[in-house]
Amino acid sequence: MAVPANASGAAFIRLQDALVHLNEQGQEQYAGYRVKILQSSALEAGNISISWNPAAGSPIIHNIKVYRGDQVTDVLKTTSFEILRREDQLEAARLDGRLTAVLRVPDLRVGDELEVSYTIHVNDPTLGKDDAGLLFLGSSPLPGRYHLELSWDDGWKPSLKMTRDMTAVVQNGERAVDFRFDNPGILVPSKDAPGRFQWQRVVEFSSFSEWAGVSRRLAPIFAKAAILSSGSTIKNEASAIAASNPTKLGRASAALNLVQQNIRYIFIGLNSGNLTPAMADETWQRRYGDCKAKTVLLLALLREMGIEAEPVLVNNSGTDDGLDERLPSPRMFDHVLVRAHIDGTWYWLDGTLPSVVPPSTTPTLPYRWVLPLTTQGSSLEHIEWRPANRPDEINLTDIDTRAGFDQPAHVVSTSIKRGIEGLQQQVQLSGATPDQLTNALRQSLVGNTWQTVEDVKWRYDEKAQASVLTIVGTWKLDWEDDGDGARSMALPGGGFSPPDRRGRAADQDQNLPYYNKPDYDCYVTTVRLPTSTRSGQWASKPGFDTHIFGRNYYRAFALRGGAIRMIRGSRVERQEIDAASARKDNERIAAFDNSRGYIFFDPAGQQKPIASAPNVPSTDEIDWTADNVPCLSADARDKPAG
């Protein structure tokens, strides 16, 4: 494509080809481009990096040239690739065995044109003749000409599925589909729409006709890897576990703990390792492995103890919304774990999680679609989402001001975290000594709100599946002077910002639903009032119990026993909001109570003292790690849909 005189941006793409050909050897992936360098920021295009799996064969470099006016330089005549065996994600414990060729084009200048083309072979031994993949054009490409093509040999035609924007431009050939774009526009996904509506300019291809075919293909591979040798020491481990635990659930818990504690996580993607797990005996011997290896070892232990279990493919990246609308592909998953059937109930077991995570009737991550691997072949299974019955995070703040307004307040601050954040904190803090933890938090906190940090305690409550961190010290409280001896203070975590208006640009689909990222948090504050004051001298902002945009906003105050108690909770109750409901709630934003959680003292007395709401316990009155804590109104907890 000719470079226009008014070309703008960092570079202009004169041509970019992305071609995939399917045959009995797998995939041949061709990439070719010729780019005009318009600004210095685009000179990094001269840092060429090509990565491949050597098990599938070496790449073919067709062409690297630089055009400068009438001068053409063949870069490969004077400059060579450097071959590196480097693990790009070694810090994330990933070994994939890929090779990388790097070349730095010398003397590349603004105004030059760089031309590069190469072919890479892709062949996954696990899948054999079956495979799947994607062709796509990004949402905001540089100006220029783009060409995508999928072709195949006779007998290798895959199933195809395209987004509407690709269907509109497809050119069908006898053994190919072709897509050409000149200066493709910028595509912006509909704002705040669920993930399944975010797919744009994508072509899917797959040789699998159904998800059950993926399940059938992979199930025997995992079953074979879980077979133990006659002299396997894993059998001894299973016998010891069975002897020490009378129940199946107890045995499954012990087996899971063994895998979590004794096999360190390292992703192994060498040769056929991307989808093929290592043998259970091999993993036990070397004491490291990835999710596939840990799953297979766990399956072997459970089978030795007569516990029914199966591997299940899942997506940990949170991109499985709409997976049922995709073509069947094992590449839509990035993780595998175990599901065991014990006493009539299915339990999830993940050997890659910390050893504080036991078998659970619900997965740790909120999967939408999963694929069990079974001999007969299983279809995708949908996991229904429900509002959380326990907060993801609770912050408890006990402020003791009994010594008076002008004295430092003694404060006990406790955070309770669940889910992935709680586990991350468990991994982070479990290796620290009490002195290390106290000193670290003292250094980071003192000087702001905290005047002193006297003590720090941390524990992971396995029964509650919660990380509990408690800090004890003193605060200098920010009492506001309201005149004539009156004072006020905003309690920590007591207010809400108004929700954002839900709306989209005119060129976007106005009728798509809006997505709510699920969360549930709770703030509990107790203020032990100065002993020189009386309860009738105190007031507070009002409480509320509001449902808007699929979220419950709750706040309640109470004054009992010489202390003001406040609870403020927020929970997503609908993961998706239909457009009509969102438009109605837009009209309600103006009336939303976004007041901070103020308490007020007036020595002359209050006309409207605090009206104590029911069931507002203080920070030390109940076990806040328990289920069904009163972070929402009773009605909201009983009717979670809102």
Automatic annotation (TrEMBL):
Q: Show the segment(s) annotated as Disordered.
A: 488-511
Q: Does the keyword RNA-binding apply?
A: no
| Domain named DUF3857: residues | 27-164
InterPro entries xref list: DUF3857, Papain-like_cys_pep_sf, Transglutaminase-like
The name this protein carries in UniProt is: Transglutaminase-like putative cysteine protease
Gene source species? Sphingobium subterraneum
- What GO biological process terms are annotated to this protein in UniProt? proteolysis
What SUPFAM superfamilies has UniProt attached to this entry?
A: Cysteine proteinases (SSF54001)
What are the alphabetically sorted keywords of the record? Hydrolase, Protease
MF terms per GO, please?
peptidase activity
- The Transglutaminase-like domain sits at 240-350
Superkingdom classification of source: Bacteria
A Pfam short name: Transglut_core
